[in-house]
TrEMBL record:
The lineage of its organism: Bacteria, Pseudomonadati, Pseudomonadota, Alphaproteobacteria, Hyphomicrobiales. It is found in: Cell membrane. It comes from Mesorhizobium abyssinicae. The keyword Transmembrane helix applies. Pfam families: Multi_Drug_Res (PF00893). It is a multi-pass membrane protein. Belongs to the drug/metabolite transporter (DMT) superfamily. Small multidrug resistance (SMR) (TC 2.A.7.1) family. Gdx/SugE subfamily. This is Guanidinium exporter. Keywords: Cell membrane, Membrane, Transmembrane, Transmembrane helix, Transport. The chain crosses the membrane at residues 29-50, 57-78, 84-103.
Amino acid sequence: MSWIYLFFAGLFEIGWAIGLKYTDGFSKLVPTVLTVASMIVSLGMLGLALKELPVGTAYAVWTGIGTVGTALLGIWLLGEPATVVRLACIGLIVCGIVGLKLVA
């Protein structure tokens, strides 16, 4: 169950990271409320995952999911560049996440 909590914590991290862009410096009410709610859910689920998982593994996987998801959504939603090197680096992060899951 801890890995499920961690996975969803990572998804909500993506939500708040992308949400920050839409808050326009916290000047837009609805995106700000949704971003803050996503932060709370993400940290709460990370806390639940940490009941059973090692902190180093859980934190690395949580930030990795957030990093990969945010980078991909940045490319898709925000028109950020999708260079070969950038996509290869994202792939390396995914390999690290999978590796941590396999050894934990």
